[in-house]
């Protein structure tokens, strides 16, 4: 017998569940709104900092910028969410609804005023639409056939990029010159040459960055981890061989640029192949039993030689022969392939990065390769089931090798890579425990070997590790801005704590809101000794954080200005880059300080760089040449994915959010090389969102038909 209390008992549970659901939905929407607010703030304050102003100078015009940008960003997120949610089969898309309304309005007006013209236009529109559809289908099939294999994409990229190393040859800045100098000093030490070391009048490579003398071991060593020790040895060794053979570094730098160019083509092609062609689907279909009762079905396994059956069979399966799968397991169409190739072949960000010898482009290309492997792991994850595709759990050997190698290159090219990899290790322990061995081998082991090995070299005095002051760029900018604009506002206690570390007068003179390097006394030209790296001690550095906190509390507005001025450009598409990638093409190190490279195609480099600048300066149309455009849109796409609860996809996109955090804390504002990883994978992020949105719509349509549909995630 059921009592009244028993019959009502489920209600509170349902009520609690519904409240939690509402709270979770509100939290997701709040995160999306916060992302839009951040973008709006960065765009609104841009004009203030362009004029070297302050957020205290906020006007009604800035409010207008803020409101307009917020509404635009929120509309983009809203459209993405609407397109990604399941909808009824009889509910047309928003774009089609708008176009249908416009065409209907035009047709009604023409039919009333010019009936004959209306009939003629309808006829022309019918034939034109048919022709366009046919042409698009033919072009799409041709593009699909031309890009259905990784080696084909590699060939397209190599041919399309060939003019870059052939005419521009190499691009570099101060970093690779410093690495060559470090290796040269280390080589001289190894061969027995006496050189200066610690001393007030000595000036060695470690003084250029600079690295505090308390970090130098007592036994002389000249190799540092400032620009990553593995790259320093590799680049420096190549330059040393070049000097031995040709009496200059130039040939070595050109050879290094060509190697990076080839590596870039391989990484981009490998990732594009995974995103466009979904190659992991082919083995599942290539092993299907041949059904001779249905000759219309293609046979994917054919004998290598009919006369010699012992030679076995080969797979002839390609995307053009693969039967269309349900989304998201469907290969990309012609339009997605065209946009992806256009991005890689025409965007100056990609072109100039292929030969630029600095750590960020190398990391970005390795990250692109790594990002493609993550997508394969995402798409092959299955909870189990009767579907043959649900059994794809084991990681193929070539995928595991790609995962390991891309992780290793990331670790040797950027110090912050190990933070990103460590975060991913923690996340996958909850999301994909079945393949823990894959993640242990591809993520954990490289971190232990490479990061641990470099730390061991530093602890034994074999190399000099990077100065911790390098990670305090935001704090240094805050102190320096206060010292410049309000020196009397620095508390005496904070001044006493900073006295052994910094010369506040020199900090004020060196302050530049776009870049923290001058405050750190980095560089060799016109060095201002604001950072007392020769005499500072570890005990002195213990007082730094408390002094900084006192200064911030006494000057909150100036400190906020210093923070925003150093990071807003990464999320403001209207802001021109502080240092664009064309800088490395025409830097003084290439055009003036090189031996013979400056004499080859000198004017052509200037012309190419100037054309890229001219394109980037065009309002709106030039945004596609700058990294902050892709960073901003990627942030908004991530906000939409949060609202749509695509948690497994967000797992693979989480490194992009971490990279945005790296940008915000970087020592320079809108430094384009820091945005390269996000820009390179932007097309792939869009394609992933499109596929999952189509899968959601297809799932809702199938569900309305009463049949079972496996969820996309």
TrEMBL record:
InterPro entries: DUF6020 (IPR046062)
Keywords noted in UniProt: Membrane, Transmembrane, Transmembrane helix
Organism domain of life: Bacteria
Keyword Nucleotide-binding carried by entry: no
Segments crossing the lipid bilayer: 31-50, 62-81, 153-176, 228-246, 253-272, 335-355, 362-381, 401-431, 438-458, 615-638, 650-668, 674-690
A Pfam family annotated for this UniProt entry: DUF6020
Name the record gives this protein: Membrane protein
Source organism: Bifidobacterium biavatii DSM 23969
């Amino acid at each position: 017998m059921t009592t009244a209390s028993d019959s009502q008992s489920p209600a509170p549970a349902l009520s609690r569940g519904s409240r939690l659901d509402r709270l979770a939905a509100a939290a997701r929407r709040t995160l999306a709104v916060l992302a839009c607010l951040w973008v709006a703030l960065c765009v609104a304050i841009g004009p203030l900092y362009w004029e070297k102003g302050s957020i205290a100078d906020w006007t009604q015009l800035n409010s207008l910028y803020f409101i307009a940008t917020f509404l635009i960003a929120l509309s983009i997120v809203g459209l993405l969410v609407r397109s990604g949610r399941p909808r009824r089969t009889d509910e047309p898309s928003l774009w089609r609804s708008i176009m249908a309304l416009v065409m209907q309005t035009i047709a009604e007006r023409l039919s009333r005023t010019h009936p004959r013209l209306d009939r003629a236009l309808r006829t022309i529109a019918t034939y034109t639409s048919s022709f366009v559809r046919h042409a698009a289908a033919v072009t799409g099939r041709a593009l699909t056939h031309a890009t259905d294999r990784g080696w084909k994409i590699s060939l397209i990229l190599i041919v399309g990029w060939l003019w870059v190393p052939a005419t521009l040859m190499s691009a570099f800045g101060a970093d690779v010159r410093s690495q060559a100098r470090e290796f040269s000093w280390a080589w001289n030490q190894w061969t027995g040459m006496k050189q200066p070391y610690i001393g007030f009048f000595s000036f060695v490579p470690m003084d250029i960055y600079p690295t505090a003398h308390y970090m130098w071991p007592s036994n002389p060593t000249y190799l540092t981890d400032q620009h990553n020790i593995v790259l320093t040895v590799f680049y420096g060794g190549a330059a040393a061989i070049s000097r031995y053979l040709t009496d200059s570094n130039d040939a070595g730098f050109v050879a290094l640029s060509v190697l990076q160019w080839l590596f870039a083509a391989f990484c981009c092609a490998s990732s594009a192949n995974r995103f466009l062609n979904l190659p992991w689907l082919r083995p599942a279909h290539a092993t299907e039993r041949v059904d001779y009762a249905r000759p219309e079905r293609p046979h994917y396994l054919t004998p290598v030689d009919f006369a010699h059956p012992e030679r076995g069979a080969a797979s002839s399966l390609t995307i053009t022969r693969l039967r269309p799968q349900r989304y998201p397991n469907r290969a990309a169409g012609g339009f997605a392939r065209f946009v992806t190739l256009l991005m890689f072949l025409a965007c100056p960000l990609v072109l100039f990065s292929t030969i630029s010898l600095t750590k960020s482009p190398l990391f970005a290309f390795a990250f692109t390769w790594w990002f493609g492997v993550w997508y394969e792991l995402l798409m092959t994850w299955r909870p189990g089931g009767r579907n043959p595709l649900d059994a794809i759990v084991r990681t193929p050997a070539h995928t595991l090798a790609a995962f390991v190698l891309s992780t290793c290159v990331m670790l040797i090219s950027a110090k912050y890579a190990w933070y990103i990899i460590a975060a991913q290790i923690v996340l996958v322990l909850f999301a994909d425990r079945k393949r823990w061995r894959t993640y242990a081998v591809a993520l954990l082991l490289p971190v232990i070997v490479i990061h641990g090995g470099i730390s061991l070299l530093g602890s034994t005095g074999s190399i000099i590790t990077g100065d911790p002051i390098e990670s305090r760029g935001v704090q240094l900018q805050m102190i320096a801005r206060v010292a410049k604009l309000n020196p009397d506002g620095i508390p005496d206690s904070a001044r006493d704590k900073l006295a052994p570390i910094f010369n506040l007068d020199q900090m004020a003179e060196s302050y530049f809101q776009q870049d923290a390097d001058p405050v750190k006394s980095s560089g060799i030209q016109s060095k201002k000794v604001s950072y007392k790296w020769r005499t500072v001690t570890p005990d002195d550095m213990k007082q730094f954080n408390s002094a900084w906190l006192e200064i911030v509390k006494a000057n909150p507005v100036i400190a906020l200005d210093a923070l925003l001025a150093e990071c807003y450009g990464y999320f403001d598409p209207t802001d021109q880059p502080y240092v664009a990638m064309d800088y490395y093409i025409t830097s003084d190190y290439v055009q003036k300080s090189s031996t013979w490279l400056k004499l080859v195609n000198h004017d052509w480099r200037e012309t190419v760089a100037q054309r890229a600048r001219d394109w980037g300066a065009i309002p709106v149309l030039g945004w596609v040449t700058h990294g902050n455009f892709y960073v901003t849109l990627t942030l908004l796409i991530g906000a939409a994915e949060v609202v749509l609860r695509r948690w497994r996809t967000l797992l693979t996109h989480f490194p992009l959010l971490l990279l945005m955090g790296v940008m915000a804390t970087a020592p320079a504002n809108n430094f384009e090389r820091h945005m390269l990883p996000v820009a390179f994978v932007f097309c792939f992020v869009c394609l992933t969102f499109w596929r999952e949105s189509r899968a959601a719509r297809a799932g809702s349509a199938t569900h309305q038909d009463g049949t079972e549909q496996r969820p996309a995630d």
